[in-house]
Specification:
8 strands; 2 helices
Length: 153
Amino acid sequence: MSAESLNTCTLSGNLGNDAEVKYTAGGMAITSFSLAVNHRRKQQDGSYADETSWVDCTMFGKRGESLQANGYLQKGAKLAVVGHLRMSTWEADGQRRRKLEVIVDNIIVMANYRQLQQPQAQQPTRFSRNRRTRLTFTTKTFRFKEQVCKDEN
């Protein structure tokens, strides 16, 4: 009988560069990006300094492709991701290489650079597939409010 383990990772941070989408031979989208995650650490003199860790993230399927195509995964975007860790190993130039990455299961776009540049009234409205709803994201709680929209036409 094998021992059970927990492999869950929740992170929030900013994209270091625009996300990159590649496709498998079968046509599946693979979206990859690097997330800058800060940790505030107290220094010896009593001041605080941020330490940045860069975390490689990968998404499979149409969701990442769609987010990237619609400009949500651009450099500087504030994201929250939930996923699991995966260790990849390969050989290059006669040396064994390893890479630890987060396989993203869920993602929340908290803000992106383009949204921050627009006045509040001009932010784009996003709609769900089932019914028309306006999603208002609040970055402090990582939750969203859902309001049913009136037909704006």
